[in-house]
Amino acid sequence: MSDNQNHGSNGTPMSRRRVMQLLGATGVAGGLAGCGGQSAVETDTQGDGGSDGSDGSDGGDGGSDTPESTATPEGFESTSMASIQELAYVTNQTLPVLPIMEKLAQSFQATDDWSVPSADSEKMQVYWPTSWLPRTGDWTLKEGADDERLTLAQWAVPADSQYNVWNGTNDGEARRMIFDRFMRYNVATREYHPYVISDWSVEESTLTLSVREGQTWHDGEPVTGTDVANHIKLDLYNSAGGGGIGPYVLPEGDMNAVPDRVQATGEKTVEITLEQPVNEDILLSLLAPTRLRAYDEVYGEYVTALDEAESEEERSTALGELTEFTDAEPVGNGPFQWEDADSQRTLVTKYEDHPDADNINFSEAEYLYKPQNSGRWSSLINGETDGSATLFMPQNQTRRLPDHMQTALVSRHWGMGIVFNHDREPVDDVRVRKAIANVINREAAAGNSAAGTGSKVAVTYPSGLTGEFNDQIEGHWLDGVADEFDTYGRAERRTEEAAELLRDAGYEKQNGTWQKDGEPLELPIKGPAGFSDWVSGVQTIVSHLQDFGIESEPIMQDSATYWGGDYVEGDFKLALQGWASYDHTHPYFHFDWIYRSGDATDYWNVPTEYEAPILHEELRDSETIAPDGYISDLATPQE
Predict the structure, then answer these.
(1) Nearest 5 degrees, angle CA 392-CA 396-CA 397?
(2) Nearest-CA neighbor of 236 among 319, 153, 180?
(3) Nearest to 213 by CA among 356, 350, 358, 17
(4) What SUPFAM superfamilies is this protein classified in (predicted)?
């Protein structure tokens, strides 16, 4: 995403080293699924083609022009930082959604046989620490330990697992050790590091990627630029141009352009031709989590068929063959290679020719079949497994953990929020939305949702910005302007303010209930019953509304009924959904989710224009604002 130092524009080449200098303070990364729709599921569902957990999120400070001017407003490091603050202020003042809490994922590490960073170490903030930390030599076997195998858990039956990410079914958990990501990202420091992609540059309409020297597939063949190009192409074909880097590469989503726009230009290089100027941070953040799968020896035939398709029908047939292919015994490129799988476990063994093999002092890793949270809790408690990358474990279970099992908290830059159907009365009225915000004690809701684990943090400023866990909001994004933002009572119930808003909207309180034209104010909240932490949070919220005199109840439905029915049909006034773009730190992705995602436009029916006070007069002179243009410009290089 954007960077508030305003470098790397005007067609000047930007090397990896230059980007690194800028990102030392800002950083980028994120889920390949990018800014499209998302499902609020407690799984790792982003990364390589939308099926893998992200290592973190993108970060960075703005770096684009605003709709009004290409000049940087006086007093700002960049126009984009001012635009981010303006969008945050509009969100804060109009509440298209109501952020309630941010999630901190619990991550577990055994310290009896293993040396690992402390729970509060910045190193623990690299996503999926059970797979990243061994690569960097930060998760090692202690001298004299009895165990020589790292034992983890997986959701799918190991024997039924496969490793073709474009197949979309039973992607094996061992992928984390078998395949390497393009890049690595630390969410706490916002530092961004090369991995499979060792170097890159952006020059006007071309993004050039270089492959790490010494990286080989598990059959000994070198990882090449063709392999990297293959993966990017298959992601583009599979997304139909609508996700990841597609909008920035393909003119009007034209899949015929893929072969020309993504090419291996050397044994170790790939060039991607861009359709429009794009902030390099955005591009890199979308590419970073990609886990390289597309070995030419295995996937080359599918790439060729798609590249050479002469009609939509031929392309559809070729894509169908790709998505039906089952890769049960994968040839990987990571520090561990696939060995075998049965009904209960997947076994991988150390690949000695990996560039980071010397950092790893154990020979095997295994993934045990644990399809339920309860089974995973028991395995951590009784020492059957050595850790878990992310897992919700309530306090009544964490109390049973042995002393040698430590728990770290890793930010997901995402969390439960209330979304409104803007086509339904009375929540189409901003005064009602603000009254709801004032009535709810978000700290109480977050605390009850966390069940004593500390894994939920109440949102201080409902604004579309994430980073409560390490002061990224007041200390960075809203530096100097936080006092202008309304908290709506983070840890209190501001009932007087709420009452004034409802009276202004035409309501009056009779017999303890708010009414209008003789009809009570009814605000039921719908959500997924399977999200136990959300259930606890919404019960707290409903009690606050009821105590204030608003008729409310939680309507918790099974996942199929909720996500496949009432939610997508817009059959709600208030509903539960993640209010931010999962695993991203940079505000571009969150504002894009809130204002432009398919969920926002199709299910929440958010308006295209808002009436909101002005924060920065240098940016706009009207209280009418269309967020779309400001969001688009955050993805555009500043001139």
Answers:
(1) 55
(2) 319
(3) 356
(4) Periplasmic binding protein-like II
**Mapping DSSP to helix (H, G, I), strand (E, B) and coil, where does residue 135 land?**
helix
Q: Select 79-100+415-635's CATH number: 3.40.50.2300, 3.30.360.10, 3.10.105.10, 3.40.30.120.
A: 3.10.105.10
295-323 pLDDT, tens digit per residue, is 999 999 999 999 999 999 999 999 999 99
SS3 content of the chain, % helix, strand, coil (to 5): 35, 20, 45
Burial group, residue 316, by CB count within 10 angstroms (0-12, 13-18, 19+): exposed
Paired residues of 470 in beta bridges:
none
142 burial class (0-12, 13-18, 19+ CB within 10 angstroms)? middle
**Across the chain, what does the average pLDDT equal?**
86
Q: Could you tell me where the DSSP H helices lie in 480-586?
A: 495-504, 532-548, 559-561
Q: Is the pTM of this model over 0.70?
A: yes
Residue 632: Cβ within 10 Å count? 14
Instruction: Report the C-alpha gap between 574 and 603 in whole angstroms.
Output: 11
Helical residues (DSSP H) of 369-429, grouped into ranges: 373-382, 395-398
The tokens for 299 are: 């996937």
CA atoms within 13 A on the CB side of 40: 31
Q: To which residue do tokens 């959904």 refer?
A: 577
Is residue 426 reached through a cis peptide bond, with omega within 30 degrees of 0 on the bond before it?
yes
Identify the bridge partners of residue 199 per DSSP, sorted by sequence position.
Answer: 210
Q: How far apart are CA 145 and CA 125, in angstroms?
A: 26
pLDDT tens-place string over residues 466-509: 998 878 899 889 999 999 999 999 999 999 999 999 999 999 99
Separation of alpha carbons 69 and 629, rounded Å: 12
Q: Domain coordinates of the chain in residue numbers? A: 79-100+415-635, 105-162+339-407
> Cα–Cα distance between 192 and 57 in angstroms, integer?
10
**Which stretches of 207-357 are DSSP H helices?**
225-239, 246-249, 258-261, 280-287, 296-307, 312-324
Written as six digits, the tokens of 268 are 């170790």
Instruction: Report CA dihedral (557, 562, 565, 568) to the nearest 10 degrees.
Output: 150
Distances from the Cα of 179 to the Cαs of 215, 227, 293, in angstroms?
11, 13, 7
CB 194 within 8 A of CB 136: no
Contact 453, 114 (CB under 8 A): no
Amino acid at site 188: A
pLDDT in tens, 147-164: 889 999 999 999 999 999
The helices-and-strands tally (H runs, E runs) of the chain is: 20, 27
